[in-house]
């Protein structure tokens, strides 16, 4: 085995296609409701700037796990002012409906999954409950921001089923 | 911020192939093989040559049969066996079949270790190769003894942590086991003469989840990486006592992985006894490399001197293993990258 060159590198386009395929392979369904305005995957190297309103648009129509006909926006769980955007970093604060809300982790997870699917991978996303809004604030935040726990949760079919139900209408346009 | 680094981190090889996030990478201690594992449930083995410079090529892809993510991999000290840790709660033990010649044997699963109740996060072999440790979100650490014919006997189920255990790592010389947890602590374990494994020390100090551990090659120090964005260096101040002597900052987000290698021989940065190089990376996509040395006037509790010798931004992911001057990293993009450090 005679080495002929020092560096083996993969061509960029292949890498990006594989990444897109990889993202789809994680999920049971393709996110068919995504329309063009929520596509941030560009073909060139220029990163698209993004603002808080665009992030809010992505998450406002997530259904509440307990009150399925209500959206997180309608329940004031998420709002545009609670989204903070920096060049590659996004912070989403959400307000659980009641301080002992047992669904908080699920709501946080649905926000995370929605953003994971809709945003380019360069964005680091932090999700937290609004300070003071939950009894177990620290515990909920810790789980939602533990990459490994989130990944394992997404390999739990029962949990994914519930998440998919909450995410069914996310691509819906405003009235 | 302008820092003059004494080393540059250069990309040597980019290994595309996993269909999903790659979680861990491990160098075979004896043979020229690099293993990676992934959410795609496979393990990929890359063979490499280093003369005159490193070239990597896919040797084989093992569809492990785990039903969920393969999260961790560990080579036995002999280089002969590979253990896989999976979110399906099981551990797989893999060996290569004897073929007509070295190149022909298939990798086969010779044993499945069951017992954990939830996701298995990490596996590690003791320096002697006699013990295998595993840990899980079920809060336990298991110690298994390896018998001939891939027969593994459970020697202890340690239930000392109050939360998810992220990583296990054995001392490079003695049979001391360390575990790192979501409960923000590190625990150290020994095998008691009456044949029970027990926890003899709990190291507190990190403000959040401890993700990764790396023992210094000389066995006198332990490095830990945490969600609190720091790396702590713990020093052995007595036979069964370890104390934090240094906190390294240098990451903007969670530090997922730390590794401690020999580094390059040669003069030390500050004139002390070389302790090796620590490489770390995490959520911020940055690789940091520090050179550590034991000061000449060191005392029991004195910290090592440290110098940040290299930094690379946007590497992509989680690092492991310093192999002389090569570092391998894997990331959410499913890609494995091999880097070399070159003097500037």
Automatic annotation (TrEMBL), chain A:
Biased composition (Acidic residues): 30-48
Superkingdom of origin: Eukaryota
Gene3D superfamilies in UniProt: 6.10.250.1280, Fe-S cluster assembly (FSCA)
Biological processes per GO annotation: chromosome segregation; protein maturation
Region feature (Disordered): 1-48
Keywords carried by this UniProt record: Chromosome partition
GO terms for cellular component: intracellular protein-containing complex; iron-sulfur cluster assembly complex
Family: Belongs to the MIP18 family.
Protein name (Swiss-Prot/TrEMBL): MIP18 family-like domain-containing protein
Gene source species: Multifurca ochricompacta
Automatic annotation (TrEMBL), chain B:
Transmembrane feature ranges: none
Start and stop residues of the WD repeats: 15-46, 63-104, 113-145, 158-189, 203-235
GO terms, biological process: iron-sulfur cluster assembly
Gene3D superfamilies, per database record: YVTN repeat-like/Quinoprotein amine dehydrogenase
Record key words, sorted: Repeat, WD repeat
PROSITE patterns per record: WD_REPEATS_2 (PS50082), WD_REPEATS_REGION (PS50294)
Pfam families to which the protein is assigned, alphabetical: WD40
Superkingdom per UniProt: Eukaryota
Recorded GO CC terms: cytosolic [4Fe-4S] assembly targeting complex
CDD domains: WD40
UniProt keyword Repeat present: yes
HAMAP family: ciao1
Functional description taken from the UniProt entry: Essential component of the cytosolic iron-sulfur (Fe/S) protein assembly machinery. Required for the maturation of extramitochondrial Fe/S proteins.
Protein family per UniProt: Belongs to the WD repeat CIA1 family.
Protein name: Probable cytosolic iron-sulfur protein assembly protein 1
């Amino acid at each position: 085995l005679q080495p002929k060159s020092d560096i083996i590198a993969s061509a960029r386009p292949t890498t990006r296609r594989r990444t897109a395929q990889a993202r789809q392979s994680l999920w049971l369904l393709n996110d068919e409701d995504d329309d063009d305005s929520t596509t941030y995957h560009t073909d060139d190297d220029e990163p698209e700037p993004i603002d808080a309103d665009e992030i809010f648009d992505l998450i406002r129509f997530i259904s509440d796990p307990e009150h399925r006909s209500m959206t997180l926006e309608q329940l004031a769980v998420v709002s545009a002012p609670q989204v903070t955007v920096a060049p590659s970093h996004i912070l989403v604060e959400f307000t659980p409906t009641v301080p002992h809300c047992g669904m908080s982790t699920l709501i946080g997870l649905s926000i995370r999954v929605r953003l994971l699917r809709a945003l380019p991978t360069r964005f680091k996303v932090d999700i937290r409950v609004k300070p003071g809004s939950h009894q177990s604030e620290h515990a909920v935040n810790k789980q939602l921001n533990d990459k490994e726990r989130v990944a394992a949760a997404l390999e739990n079919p029962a949990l994914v089923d519930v998440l998919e139900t909450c995410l069914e209408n996310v691509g819906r346009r405003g009235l | 911020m302008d820092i003059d680094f004494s080393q540059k981190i250069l990309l040597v090889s980019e290994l595309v192939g996993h269909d999903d996030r790659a979680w861990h990478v491990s160098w075979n201690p004896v043979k020229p093989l690099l293993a990676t594992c992934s959410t795609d449930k496979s393990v990929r083995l890359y063979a490499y040559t280093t003369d005159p410079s490193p070239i990597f090529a896919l040797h084989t892809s093992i569809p492990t049969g785990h039903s969920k993510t393969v999260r961790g991999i560990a080579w036995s000290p002999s280089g002969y066996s590979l253990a896989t840790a999976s979110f399906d709660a099981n551990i797989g033990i893999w060996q290569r079949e004897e073929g007509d010649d070295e190149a022909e044997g298939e990798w086969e699963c010779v044993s499945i270790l069951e017992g954990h109740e939830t996701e298995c996060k990490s596996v590690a072999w003791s320096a002697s190769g006699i013990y295998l440790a595993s840990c899980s979100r079920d809060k336990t650490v298991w110690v298994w003894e390896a018998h001939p014919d891939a027969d593994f006997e459970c020697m202890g189920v340690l239930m000392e942590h109050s939360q998810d255990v992220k990583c296990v790592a054995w001392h490079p010389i003695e049979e001391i086991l360390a575990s790192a947890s979501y409960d923000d602590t590190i625990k150290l374990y020994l095998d008691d003469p009456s044949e029970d494994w027990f926890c003899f020390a709990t190291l507190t100090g990190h403000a959040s989840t401890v993700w990764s551990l790396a023992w210094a090659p000389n066995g006198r120090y332990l490095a830990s990486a945490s969600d609190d964005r720091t790396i702590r260096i713990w020093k052995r101040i007595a036979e069964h006592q370890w104390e934090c002597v240094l906190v390294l900052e240098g990451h903007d987000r969670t530090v997922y992985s730390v590794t401690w290698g020999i580094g390059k021989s040669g003069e030390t940065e500050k004139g002390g006894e070389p302790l090796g190089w620590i490489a770390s990376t995490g959520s911020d996509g940055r690789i940091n490399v520090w050179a550590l040395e034991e000061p000449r006037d060191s005392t029991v509790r004195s910290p090592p001197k440290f110098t940040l010798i290299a930094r690379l931004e946007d590497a992509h992911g989680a690092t492991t293993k310093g192999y002389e001057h090569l570092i391998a990293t894997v990331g959410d993009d499913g890609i494995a990258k091999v880097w070399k450090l070159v003097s500037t």
